[in-house]
Design a protein that fits this description.
The chain has ten helices and 14 strands. It is an alpha+beta fold. It has two domains: 257 residues, BirA Bifunctional Protein, domain 2 (2-Layer Sandwich), CATH 3.30.930.10; 35 residues, no CATH class. A seven-stranded mixed beta sheet has the order 3-8-9-14-12-11-10. Strands 4-6-5 form a three-stranded antiparallel beta sheet. It binds zinc ion. The site of zinc ion has 6 residues, from strand 14.
């Protein structure tokens, strides 16, 4: 297939083939049945790859305790991406004012008060408090599939405000978690290559806020803490990150008092596959009609 890259045409193609369902809000869309079939097929392939690793499975809602967000200092680094939840707790008069303003299209946010929860900004956050205490000698490994929120409204289909990540989280000694992360980086490259995607990997940085954030990002790259696997989806020059592999050093270990078997502060690492992004990469490279996809790819994804 001769592939050209064009954001608008790709978005419109996904819509025209019923793969995504626009909602009106940028970066918020429904997923059609075939899109979900491909996404579920890929998720099952990850299951197979990880089957013998013995991960504990957890499931969390797309919300976290606000205190957890505060404890990990999320707002220090990513205030611009945060989704805090506010609701109404006023009296009957104020309720009327709220409804009237909303009905007239006027601002009404100042009539709300902040609740005790926020949308989940990273699928792995609810897991770290469950590691508190002393780890077994082999460390711990948890897997989950979670919805993540980012305040990044964009017409670009791979940049969503809400998306799913299939994530694995490891705690142990620094050597254990780095070896595990590097093993998964190779697994990720092999897996996506086997699905016919032209992948590369590179060191990367998180989208830290502001001028101080530039220093943090440079530090992250210099210490090679974060790697991404990239596939061109909307641009050849700026390929899309479809999975990321992160070494947090002792950041969460010290925050949540996680200890290795010999009593040292534990290290953690996490890795996540962006399920919608991988699915879009497959549609980009194999076409909008799954019946025309290479037989080997269809078989692997049980399509
Ligand atoms: Zn994570």
């Amino acid at each position: 297939m001769n592939i050209t890259y064009d954001v608008d045409n790709f978005y419109q193609g996904l819509v025209d083939h019923g793969l995504i369902i626009p909602s009106g809000a940028l970066g918020v869309f429904g997923r059609g049945a075939v899109f979900e079939q491909v996404l579920a097929g890929f998720n099952e392939v990850i299951d197979q790859v990880a089957r013998d690793d013995g991960a504990e499975s957890q499931t969390h809602p797309p919300l976290i305790d606000r205190a957890l967000l505060e404890k990990v200092h999320y707002l220090d680094s990513f205030p611009h991406l945060c989704g805090a939840i506010h609701s109404f707790s006023g009296n009957a008069m104020q309720a009327l004012a709220l409804a009237e303003r909303a009905g007239n299209g006027q601002p009404w946010g100042d009539l709300l008060t902040q609740t005790g929860v926020t949308l989940t900004p990273a699928a792995c956050y609810p897991v770290y408090p469950t590691f508190t205490g002393t780890l077994p000698p082999e460390g711990r490994l948890v897997e989950l599939l979670g919805w993540v929120y980012r305040n990044e409204p964009s017409p670009e289909p791979t940049r969503m405000q809400s998306f799913r990540v299939r994530e694995f989280i490891r705690a142990g000694t620094a050597d254990q978690v780095v070896a595990w992360r590097d093993m998964w980086l190779q697994r990720g490259l092999d897996l996506l290559t086997s699905l016919g995607l032209p992948v590369t990997s590179d060191v990367a940085a998180d989208p830290f806020f502001g001028r101080g954030g530039k220093v943090l990002a440079a530090n992250q790259i210099e210490q090679r803490l974060k790697f991404e696997v990239l596939v061109p989806v909307i641009s050849l020059e700026a390929p899309t990150a479809v999975c990321s592999f992160n070494f947090h050093q002792q950041h969460f270990g010290s925050t949540f008092d996680i200890r290795t078997a010999d009593g040292a502060v534990a290290s953690t690492a996490c890795l996540g596959f962006g399920l919608e992004r991988v699915t879009m990469a497959l549609f980009k490279h194999h076409g909008f009609d799954i019946k025309a996809w290479p037989q080997s790819v269809r078989e692997q994804l049980s399509l």
